[in-house]
Each structure stands twice: as C-alpha cells, then as structure tokens.
Design brief:
With 251 residues, the chain is an alpha/beta fold. The chain has helices at residues 16-30, 47-54, 80-85, 96-101, 106-118, 131-135, 139-150, 156-159, 180-197, 200-205, 216-223, 240-249, and strands at 5-9, 37-41, 59-63, 90-93, 122-127, 162-166, 207-210, 230-233. It has one domain: Aldolase class I (TIM Barrel). Strand 3, helix 3 and strand 4 (90-93) form a beta-alpha-beta unit. Helix 5 packs across helix 7 (139-150), helix 7 (139-150) crosses helix 9 and helix 11 (216-223) runs parallel beside helix 12 (240-249). The chain is globular and about 45 Å long. The two termini are 13 Å apart.
Length: 251
C-alpha cells in the first residue's frame, strides 16, 4: 500500500517571516499527524527557518529546484549539497514553470534527478501537458517523452526514491481541475510507463501525485482514484486550513 504524499509548493510566495508563521501553524495543527507524508517546499531563503520550525515534527522539508553541478559560476542557482546541508529531503524538479519560463528541458531534468538521487535525497519529478497539447490529443506522447527523459540512466533502485507529479499545465493556478477520470487515466498511463521502463514492482512502489488545482473540496475524490497517491499543492498550500484539509482527505 503506497503512502499518500502531500507536498506544498509555496513557489515565489512567503518571505522568511511569513514562511515561519505558516510553518508554525502547520506544525501546531498537523505536526504529529499520522497518514499522508507531508512536505513543505518554501523559497530557498526560507529553507533554514522552516527547517528549524518543523524539526522534530512529522513535516518534511523540500526545495523547489536544484542545479546539477556541485558548485561554480552559476549565478542565482543552488546546489544539491547546499540543500542537503539546509535539511532538505525532497526536491521538486522539472516543474512546468521551470520548463516554460526558464528553459528547463528533459535533459536538464535528468541531470538534476541524477544529482539529487546521488546525494541521497528524493526527487519529485514533474510531468504534464499544456492545454494545446491536450486538445491536440498528444497528452500521452508528451508525458511519455518527459518520463523517459527524466529517468534515462536511472537505476530501478534509484527510481524507487522518486515521486512523479502529474501536473496538467492547463489546470495549474487556473481554477480548472482535470476530472477524476482524466487524472486517473494519465496516472495509470504513467504507472504503465514505469512498469515498461523498470518492473511491476517499481511501478507499484513509485508514488504519483496530482498537481493541478487540488483543493480540500476535490481532494477526497482525486485521492480516491486507484493511481493517485497524493498532491503537489500550489495555492492551497499557502493557507494552513486548506493544506490541512487536503491532508485530512488522505487519511
């Protein structure tokens, strides 16, 4: 039985003081909760403070991206070793906003996944199609290319230390949500891809999150689908009660 994983991607929101306040509220309300695995992904600047706040609780720390080099002339970037030192356990990689705004490619996602796994951290690998791609009927082709690209050269044992986040780009921050059937269909397709790349054992152990406008009101139905193992939460992760509502839906 796969444990649900609910990860809050705070994106470029919450300064250090606001991040501390939200983290404290979440520790108070869910810090001893059993059930879904809970991950908070604040900005780089807030990582150390949030790590301090959640220490000793059931909440885990995640980062929103990482670079594939250990160090060097990469202005504005943060290495995996820096994240590990800050207490990070999970790293979001290949998010659609990185792909669309900052030139992320399947090749760079793959480099990052390898670096994160080599450091003993866990990767949350994002895949998903745009509205144009969905309407053109190429969702499966797009997702297949992204999954195969991200996992190129990744061993079966390392693959078990990843989470896949299916994020239909057209449903991120738009208020639109894939129907339960649409989401389940793509999640099942992704699990089938992992079976083909590795084995049924790996496919059944890898958790696949839904990442498109999951909220307390729809979380229960989405999490009730056979192949949906959690959520990568954006807007609803910025309000403690909403995030807790999603967590409770997974209990």
């Amino acid at each position: 039985m796969r444990q649900y994983i609910i990860a809050g991607n705070w994106k470029m929101n919450m300064g250090i003081s606001d991040a501390e306040t939200l983290a404290k509220e979440l520790v108070e309300k869910a810090g001893t909760s059993e059930g879904p695995e809970m991950v908070l992904c604040p900005t780089y600047l807030a990582l150390a403070k949030v790590a301090e706040v959640i220490k000793g609780s059931n909440l885990k720390l995640g980062a929103q991206d990482a670079h594939w080099e250990d160090d060097g002339a990469y202005t504005g970037k943060v290495s995996v070793s820096m994240l590990k030192e800050a207490g990070v356990e999970y790293v979001i990689l290949g998010h659609s906003e990185q792909r669309s705004f900052f030139g992320e490619t399947d090749e760079t996602v793959n480099k990052k996944v390898k670096k994160v796994l080599a450091a003993g951290l866990k990767a949350i690998v994002c895949v998903g199609e745009t509205l144009e791609q969905r309407e053109s009927g190429v969702t499966e082709s797009v997702v297949k290319t992204q999954v195969e690209g991200a996992y190129a050269g990744i061993s079966a044992e390392d693959a078990k230390n990843t989470v896949i986040a299916y994020e239909p780009v057209w449903a991120i921050g738009t208020g639109k949500t894939a129907s339960n059937e649409q989401a389940q269909e793509v999640h099942a397709f992704i699990r089938g891809l992992m079976k083909g790349l590795y084995s049924e054992e790996v496919a059944e152990s890898v958790r696949i999150q839904y990442g498109g406008s999951m909220k307390p009101g729809n979380a229960g139905d989405l999490l009730g689908q056979t192949d949906i193992d959690g959520g990568l939460i954006g807007g609803a992760a910025l309000k403690a009660d909403d995030f807790i509502g999603i967590i409770n839906a997974g209990k």
